[in-house]
Amino acid sequence: MSWGYLEDAGGYKGHADRICVPQNEAELCALMAEASAAKIPVTIAGGGSGLTGGRVPQGGWLISIEKFRKLEVGDGVATVGAGVTLHDLHAAAKAHGQFYPPDPTETMAFLGGTVACNSSGSRSFKYGATRRWLNRLRVVMMDGTVKDVRRGEAIDFDVPEIPQPACKKHSAGYPLKPGMDWVDLFTGAEGTLGVVIEAEVQLLPAPKQLLNGIVFFPSDESCFAALDAWRSVVGLRMLEYVDWAALNMIATKFPEIPEPARGALIIEQIIESDADVDAWADRLEAMGGMGDLSWFGTSDADRERFRKFRHALPETVLAISERNGFMKMGSDFAVPVDRNREMIAYYRERMEQIMPGEYCIFGHLGDAHAHVNMTPSTQERFDAGAEVMTEFARKAVALGGSVAAEHGLGKRKAKFLPLQYSAEQIEAMKSVKRRLDPDWLLGQGTLFGN
After folding, report:
1. What digits encode the pLDDT tens for the residues 71-113?
2. Roughly what angle, to the nearest 10 degrees, separates helices 340-354 and 220-230?
3. Distance between CA 7 and CA 3 in Å, rounded?
């Protein structure tokens, strides 16, 4: 799926005085220097798969990174242009017997966009987010100069330490701490400090064999019991949840979903022997899984089928939202693993009050990171959903969690930053922004709001 320059995948729209598509670094540097001298705001656009409006300008210039397509795969590393899609990076790595561990669900996302948001995804259960897999970044600054920074190269100014939440995933604001390096600073900054045009990423050897499965359960309770029990399974690198409403939503696309199913877990495991496969029969029996009706496979064709199943979830939510005439509305909050059930129960209680029958929950519950997806059919319900999202953000923070686990805050969710951090902590972030972008031209409205 592709989006125009002035819209993102969530349906957030904007406008620009000029759209620029530089062909190379020299052109980009010249554009940035020109905009800086004229005090023109600049918004950087990736592939458009984001959901928070970060790449959508509200005036000024939009600069697309689509032409930065360098892709060189080596032993354990790849040099990747910011305009390379995850699909192409995965394919190139696979051709060399390797893989790039972060796995954001939207494979048409640009690498630069995933760095900007510190994106994660289905394999983050084992491998964590993008930041962990970056060795080097090449960044064009607002004044047109270039920084080429490697992991471990410390920033040259003092910053305070800002506490991070206790959850496994977090991508909101700058993760400031004394002596931090430039790579950590630029990663997750949502294009507000500089323009990432190239990255050196780490690759791992491709596993010899993987077991993939979609395990169906007759009740939500049995699904959650299995979720808690299976977090410790050796070699597991994906553990995701799909509720009954989400299963029902995609049933026409996947009529083979068993009718009695009231929930599902999507798993992927690195397997070393047949014993690893056989162990799942005992696990399903112990947890009340629907063994005969669940799906398992070890082939590339199986994995592609299960990938399409997983991708159909957000794709269908978006299609319903567009049909109803509203922007896509979904949560991106994470909590500590031991507060997972409490957060899910809170989601359900409130959603049943304001939008019964028009929401579903799925996502990365191995990391206690669920996406509540709302599909309101009326303006009244849409407004109620927008209001309760702030309530959900407050609840996540109260439980020790994050207001943005993997999508960033962009423009749509910038209002959540003060729920996560104090005024003093946000001012410390803004002081870094002013140091690197004194006229506050880059990514106006993103992260800090207007």
Report:
1. 999 999 999 999 999 999 999 999 999 999 988 778 889 999 9
2. 150
3. 6
